[in-house]
Amino acid sequence: MTDLLHHSWEIAPPEAVRVQKTLETHLALQPLSDAPETIAGADISTKWRGRFGVGGMVVFSWPDMELIDESFHSGELRFPYVPGLLSFREGLLLEKAFLGLRAKPDLIIFDGQGTAHPRGFGIASHLGLRLGVPSIGCAKSRLFGDVAEPVGEEKGDWRYLYSPGGRKIGAVLRTRRGVKPVYVSPGHLIDIEDSVHWVLAATSRFRLPEVIRAAHRRVGEERARRKKA
DNA sequence: GCGACAG
DNA sequence: ATCTTGTCGC
Ligand SMILES: [Mg+2]
User: Which residues 85-104 on A are within 7 A of strand B at the CB atom?
Assistant: First the structure.
């Protein structure tokens, strides 16, 4: 299975869909084994129409939430943005950034979906499985799934996200009172409830978890800095 | 065929 | 995703 798990990133959309369907069967959705001592945020930065991008992971201690380590990797984004196939566009850069970390995180939160995905295999699931690290998807907008009733307005209010078939695939979580909620779903080695718990635990006064905010900010700075040198 | 559509 | 300062509202 390691051959399939470590498939090349150089594949086309049709095969990417097949890879997702096969790898999805290997996900382990279960309570997080232990409280994490470190949590990482992962994201990439790219230009409007440019192919150049920088991917990065930023590691924080928990519960102190102090910066422990960070790693970046830049390169060409060959795969186009196709809803449902985001991991094939961002995966290589994120994987290389992870490999460059000296302090491997106990949990990684990705800017995108986990199992709240048409084939149950969003970027958090793909990278979590591939890297063998517990992971969560925390997206700023919806890709797949619906809630039965609107989520409450208070911070911490949440509702399950259901697939059209009625399966629980994630959650819609209010991380700030009266502000648009985030879409949380397990990636790998964690379940829905613990995903909600840890996204909240990593969130302070803003809508997004600190690790995602930091990752987003740092990859943006790195892209600007590496553009020339 | 039509509508939806992470970043 | 990214372009960008000020501005409006709690
Ligand atoms: Mg992103």
Answer: 85-87
Residue A42 CA to residue A96 CA, distance in Å, equals: 12
Tell me the average pLDDT of chain A.
Answer: 96
Q: What angle do CA A174, A177, A179 make, to 5 degrees?
A: 70
Looking only at the bridges linking them, the beta strands covering A67-76 and A158-162 are unpaired
CA A68–ligand 1 middle distance (angstroms)? 21
A223 Cβ within 7 A of any nucleic strand B atom: no
Give kind and range of the element (H or E) at residue A39. strand A38-46
User: pLDDT tens digit string along A92-134?
Assistant: 999 999 999 999 999 999 999 999 999 999 999 999 999 999 9
Q: Give residue A208 CA to ligand 1 midpoint distance, Å.
A: 12
Cα angle vertex A112, ends A130, A57, to 5°? 60
Q: What is the pLDDT of residues A34-81, one digit of tens each?
A: 999 999 999 999 987 779 999 999 999 999 999 999 999 999 999 999
How far is it, in rounded angstroms, from Cα A143 to Cα A229?
37
